[in-house]
Prior knowledge:
The chain is globular. It contains one helix and four strands. It has about 60 residues and is of the alpha+beta class. The longest helix has 11 residues, at about 45-55.
Amino acid sequence: MTEFRFRTSSYSEPNGECVEVALNVPRTVAVRDSKQPDGPVLLLAPTAWDAFQETLGRQP
């Protein structure tokens, strides 16, 4: 399995209510719940991640 290097968003809440994102694997964006680092990981195509960010009105 690929080892993802997750990072926490700079918009993260102090109470840990956040997602973490890994961009270190080609053609894949991995997303997980920061409260469950050993839990499930959502794998997205970069185009899907870009569309998600656009709906939030933020850029990376």
